[in-house]
What we know:
The chain is of the alpha/beta class. It has two domains: 2-84 and 295-319, no CATH class; 90-287, Rossmann fold, CATH 3.40.50.410. Helix content is 46%, strand content 20%. The protein has helices spanning 2-5, 20-39, 45-52, 57-78, 113-127, 153-161, 171-183, 214-223, 253-262, 273-287, 297-319; strands spanning 8-9, 81-88, 93-99, 133-139, 144-150, 198-204, 228-233, 239-242, 245-248, 267-270, 289-295. The strands form three sheets. The protein has a six-stranded mixed sheet, with helices on both faces. Strands 1-2-11 form a three-stranded antiparallel sheet. Strands 8-9 form a two-stranded antiparallel ribbon. Strand 4 and strand 5 (144-150) form a beta hairpin. The longest helix has 23 residues, at 297-319. It holds the Pfam family VWA_2. Residues 93-283 form the VWFA domain.
Amino acid sequence: xxFWRNLTFGDPWRLVLLLLVPAxxxxxxxxxxxxxxxxLRFTTTALLQLVGxxxxxxxxxxxxxxxLLSLTAAVVxxxxxxxxxxxxxxxxxxxxxMDVSLSMEAVDVRPSRxxxxxxxxxxxxxxxxxxxxxxxxxxxGSPAIVVPPTLDHGxxxxxxxxxxxxxxxxxxxxIVAALRALEQAPRDPQRPDxxxxxxxxxxxxxxxxxxxxxxxGARRAAxxxxxxxxxxxxxxxxxxDVDGKRExxxxxxxxxxxxxxxxxxxxxxxxxxxxxxxxxxxxxxxxGVEKKSTDVSSTFAxxxxxxxxxxxxxxxxxxxxxx
Length: 323
């Protein structure tokens, strides 16, 4: 559906030739009707079959239909169509923002939210293409760039294994820190004034408690044209014990969804380790591609050739005598 919705044409005036299609259909209907009236001059059906033979009408209609489809596809291809398609990125930077607030000690996800998140993030980093830079930012009351963008994915994995819980949750400030990390990534020599292409993957299990709001951070990312994929992590019944008091720590799904939407990315939820693994796989497939305008003239040329071959086969069947 997206293919057709984004379809545009370099020479749209050439589509005028598509008006030939209804004209040919009208001519065909008129000719078929005229041929039928001429056939009524024969007095018996048997005599008509001896003169013209008995051929199923659907074969003739099929040959015409495929011919018209071939003409339509050829005209559309001649108009130089383009559409938005997913193209694999040659280079990119992925900034992984990991929530290390105290709520990540909750054990509603076994063995704990933090340990399960580190295990899933490790697999995600290992699956990122070697040509992509990866960075790690911690999300707490004081967000920090733990590992700047690097092709040494092993350094990121080692840093993940050493994460420790910290106080508070500053989602907005962590997005700003992730943008600073992106600024440290190698620039495209042809576009040195632009950020390196990349994305932020933010996992959090709580609501923003300090610093700038999550929406403010999201707007900063949107202005920089950097998508922020969010993962609302944990269950509604998760809890931690603070100073002998049990406190519920459900994820702020609504806020994280808003962050993703403001930046043109997707929002995910995960309340088990298995779901988190699947989410990271989905994100990896999206981060690894970018939207580009692609010429699809050859696609329609292929449709035209296939339809022409089918039309030829249908025409041959009209003259063949089948047992």
